[in-house]
């Protein structure tokens, strides 16, 4: 019984912890932003706007505009080769952290998907029989099996990440024989939206499935 409780606890923790960390991080950033920028803006405007409610509202609007401008400047700077290389090195360091790296990687992948910039850690979308034969799950290919994993398997295996719904920051790493994968024509963006929405987001009519035996069905 203890083993069952422990297993369920670890599984539940793996599901909610990324979400908790992400929410905490967002709240932390917002609190720090208000502490750094809001108070100075309020003080500078106070002689001109006596009404405290109006003053705070205008200050928040100005801080928001300042943040948008700062993000736009960062986006522009990342287009410059030298700055882009600096960000790439900084990002690679973040990805090396056990927990933060996974949360950051997943959040980056999702943000790229919703912003139409999905060139990330996933290479293509596939269907894989999981958790049992005859039941299919959406998976994202990350890389080909290498090293000891590939040496000790009889067939060529592919690393497939199967995310959970609606929180795709957790999931399962499956090492699937290449011949057992069903390739999908959908983009990474469409695959992530399908997973996050729990299947609510409809697929385009052009989506088709490449069957294992070679024929195609809509």
List the helices and strands and how they pair.
Layout: H1 2-45, H2 52-77, H3 81-95, H4 98-114, E1 124-129, E2 136-144, H5 147-151, E3 157-163, E4 171-177, E5 182-184, H6 188-196, E6 209-210, E7 216-217
Antiparallel strand pairs: 1-2, 1-5, 2-3, 3-4, 5-6, 6-7
Helix pairs in contact: 1-2, 4-6
Please provide a brief summary of the model.
It contains six helices and seven strands; from the N terminus they run ααααββαβββαββ.
Structure report:
It is a single chain. The protein has 218 residues and is of the alpha+beta class. The protein folds into two domains: 2-114, no CATH class; 124-217, no CATH class. Helices cover 53% and strands 17% of the residues. The chain contains six helices and seven strands, in the order ααααββαβββαββ. A seven-stranded antiparallel beta sheet has the order 4-3-2-1-5-6-7, covered by helices on one side. α1 (2-45) crosses α2 and α4 packs across α6. The longest helix is centred in the N-terminal third of the chain and has 44 residues, at 2-45. The radius of gyration is 23 Å and the shape is elongated.
């Amino acid at each position: 019984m203890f083993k069952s409780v422990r297993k369920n606890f670890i599984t539940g923790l793996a599901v909610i912890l990324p979400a908790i960390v992400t929410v905490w991080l967002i709240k932390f950033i917002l609190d720090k932003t208000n502490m750094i920028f809001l108070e100075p803006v309020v003080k500078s405007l106070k002689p001109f706007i006596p009404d405290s409610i109006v003053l705070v509202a205008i200050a928040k609007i100005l801080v928001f505009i300042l943040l948008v401008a700062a993000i736009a400047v960062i986006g522009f700077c990342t287009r410059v080769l030298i700055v882009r290389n600096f960000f790439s090195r900084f990002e690679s360091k973040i990805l090396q952290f056990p927990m933060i790296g996974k949360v950051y990687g997943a959040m980056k992948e999702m943000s790229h998907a919703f912003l139409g910039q999905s060139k990330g850690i996933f290479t293509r979308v596939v269907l894989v029989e999981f958790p049992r034969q005859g039941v299919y799950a959406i998976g994202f290919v990350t890389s080909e099996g290498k090293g000891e994993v590939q040496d000790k398997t009889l067939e060529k295996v592919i690393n497939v990440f199967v995310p959970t719904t609606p929180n795709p920051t957790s999931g399962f790493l499956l090492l699937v024989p290449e011949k057992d994968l069903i390739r999908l024509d959908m983009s990474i963006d469409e695959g992530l939206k399908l997973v996050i929405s729990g299947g609510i987001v409809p697929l385009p009519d052009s989506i088709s499935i490449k069957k294992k035996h070679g024929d195609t069905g809509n």
